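Me: I keep going back and forth on a fold encoding question. No explanation is needed for now; the record alone will do.

Assistant:
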Amino acid sequence: MSFPPSAICPGLKPPQMRAPDMVGDGVELIPLPGHTHGHCGFLIGTREDGLLLWGDVMHLPELQASDPEVSIIYDLYPEQAAETRITALRDCLEAGFIIGGGHLGRFMCAEWNDSACRLVPIL
């Protein structure tokens, strides 16, 4: 069970995230809202052939890849975090990104298996 921040700090709302922004040659800052204030990742390379370092988009990849609406207590905005997971997985499936994140343990790619997404190690 996740407690919304408003239960602790009434009136707290998710921050507005800015659009993706280039921060260097071939490095794009990607807003990934929901986990914490200002949570973002980096796309290294291009949108057609890149490495997405998505930080804490998922804490339980085996579960959350197949059911991205599952949130944990550390997601300050569970609904927004779930939307971000859905969007990130869709983008990874469509573009074929390599994915790296704090809780993945290794580089992964996303694949569709029957009726659900799963993350598959590539290295």
Observations:
- The longest strand covers residues 40-45.
- Residues 66 and 115 are 9 Å apart (CA to CA).
- Helices lie at 5-8, 61-64, 78-95.
- The chain has a mean pLDDT of 85.
